[in-house]
Amino acid sequence: MGVSFKYIRHPQYTGLLLLSFGMMAEWATLPMLILYPVMIGMYIRLAKREEKDMLVEFGDQYRAYMKETKMFIPFIV
């Protein structure tokens, strides 16, 4: 297991959200401001769907992992 997965369950989504936030901060446009919350919602839904699949495949082992690690931001969410 990679180091990043030790602290958060979805490092790729976290990275994409941070990258998108940086782009939005640099080039804030109305479409970006509207679409960013939509994108956050879509990534949360996707991550939860993937976690359901992981629970089916790995059961209690993945459930224990979920209790130890945060979803997107270490020590917070």
Give structural notes.
This protein is mostly helical. 77% of the residues lie in helices and 0% in strands. The chain contains 4 helices and no strands. Helix 2 packs antiparallel against helix 3. The protein starts with a helix and ends in a 9-residue tail after the last helix. The model has no long low-confidence stretch (mean pLDDT 92).
Task: Give me some keywords for this one.
77 residues, mainly alpha, 77% helix, elongated
Strand content: under 5%
Count of discrete alpha- or pi-helical segments spanning 4 or more residues: 4
Biggest sheet: strands, sense, closure? none
Q: Into which percent range does the helicity of residues fall? A: over 70%
Radius of gyration: 14 Å
Mean pLDDT: 92
SSE pattern, N- to C-terminal: HHHH
How many strands?
0
Low-confidence stretches: none
SS content category: mainly alpha
Please state the overall shape, judged from the principal axes of the Cα atoms: elongated
Ends apart, CA distance between termini: 20 Å
Helices and strands, with pairings:
Layout lengths: L2 H5 L3 H16 L3 H29 L1 H9 L9
Helix pairs in contact: 2-3
What is the compact description of this entry?
This protein has 77 residues and is mainly alpha-helical. The chain is built from four helices and no strands. The model has no long low-confidence stretch (mean pLDDT 92).
